[in-house]
Amino acid sequence: MVEAAPIVSAQIIDGKAVARQIESEVAAAVERLGFAPGLVAVRVGNDPASEVYVRNKAKKAQELGLRGRELALPESTSEADLLAEVGRLNRDDSVDGILVQLPLPKQISAQKVIDAIAPAKDVDGFHPFNVGLLHLGRPALAPCTPAGVMRLIDSTGIRIEGANAVVIGRSDIVGKPMAALLLQRHATVTICHSRTRDLAAVIHQGDIVVAAVGKPLLVTAGMVKPGAVVIDVGMNRVDASFTDRLAHDSDKSRLLAKNGSVLVGDVDYARVRDVAGWITPVPGGVGPMTIAMLMQNTVTAAERRRA
Ligand code: NAD
After folding, report:
1. pLDDT category, 8, cuts 50, 70, 90?
2. For ligand 1, is residue 199 a contact (CB within 6 Å)?
3. Considering only CA atoms, which of 43, 34, 174, 46 is closest in space to residue 102?
């Protein structure tokens, strides 16, 4: 009798553990600096998700010995008033990092506001000056989520140089900077997007696959090269209409039945786990890295401003 080959599950990349490691590096760097770098998180309006994000960022900053503060402005704030506020923060020597939480109310152009942040204090890495440096392969304040993904890939110990890396999604905050960071590390990078032909065939080339789309369960087991590193940036809350599509995933099914909705990534985790070499869960993969990298960028900005 021929025995079926055992299914070897992927190693799970623990984003919370890697984030804790970065946070301890940040706390040590703050000690070495001998002063507390200042981070200001600006929020306009009352978007409940933004309130939570901004509060968590300011709280984490304080926890690690930075001076984190939240600047909350009313929904009715005009573009001119916000630009004036950003100008004041640019000139304030006690402020090392400025971030403006997106989305902004409709009367304000996010692009104008991002362009107004002093590049040396742009800890989100969204200013065109920092984007330019990143694409030139020069040290820059890189956007936090893709910078965090690099740390997760590094935590696996795989060799990025020469590897085929497939990035799914080409947004300015995740996909494009992700591709630039992988290219800096000498991966052979392919960027896929909504008009890519035969997505499955392209993904199958990837030794490293980063999914940043926002489409639940887009990446299926058949698309993934055995042994690949699969990083799932996607965060999608799905409701009972996903009951059948999640039936094979006992953990998600249980949560869905219990709560009426559940958070899933862009990757069909329960099945891709049996093909990939390493995989990130959602939640607990990329998510925890974003704030950790923001703290790291703030320390970097503080060091550079005083160098
Ligand atoms: P976005 O909507 O700006 O970009 C999505 C990209 O996906 C686009 O470039 C589009 O071309 C591409 N796309 C759409 N449909 C596609 C398809 N069928 N095949 C291939 N590509 C397709 O989104 P974003 O801001 O880059 O975010 C992507 C996901 O990552 C979202 O789920 C978001 O919530 C999540 N996210 C998570 C974190 C985190 O900290 N974990 C941070 C940022 C974004």
Report:
1. confident
2. yes
3. 43
